[in-house]
Description:
- The radius of gyration is 51 Å and the shape is elongated.
- The longest helix has 77 residues, at 85-161.
- By secondary structure, the chain is an all-alpha fold.
- It has helices spanning 2-17, 35-56, 67-72, 74-80, 85-161, 169-189.
- The protein has a domain at 10-82.
Amino acid sequence: MKALAFQVAEHFIRxxxxxxxxENRRSGWFSADDxxxxxxxxxxxxxxxxxxxxxxRPPAPTGQKDPLKRLLGPIFTxxxxxxxxxxAYWAVFVNRYVDIARFLADVIDGRFWHDFVHEKVIAGxxxxxxxxxxxxxxxxxxxxxxxxxxxxxxKRISTSLRRLQNGFVRTYALAVLAGVVVILGYLIWK
Length: 190
């Protein structure tokens, strides 16, 4: 199959691909060897002048119809709309991408990730841990036990210290004297 394609191409191209025999084609200022350089110079000059003309061409005033629209009619609309390639691209690719993105946002992110993973797995596990482990074990059996123990200790200390508060001034004066002796003893000892 490949050989057939080369044969067909060779059949049509061969007559036009034979080198031109030029003998001493010098006729004036340029020789045949100068032709590629001259062609490149003219091509570059043409591109530069086309760019210059495009840059200085004033834009059409707003609201004015393009003069080619009257000349070409419906063909101008086809060219102006670029063969509706953008509309087809949006319909075939971009809108499908947006549909897929909405599906992923709603189903994967919304229903699965948020509703299932976040609400059931993460929040459910946290609620279970906080109810069973933290509330029943840590809070009631540890923190409350410490607080209740401190309350019981305070009750016992206050029961024993209640005997010192009997309402007699001599008991309070004796307590003040004992405090002064302790302070003076500390200051002398130091």
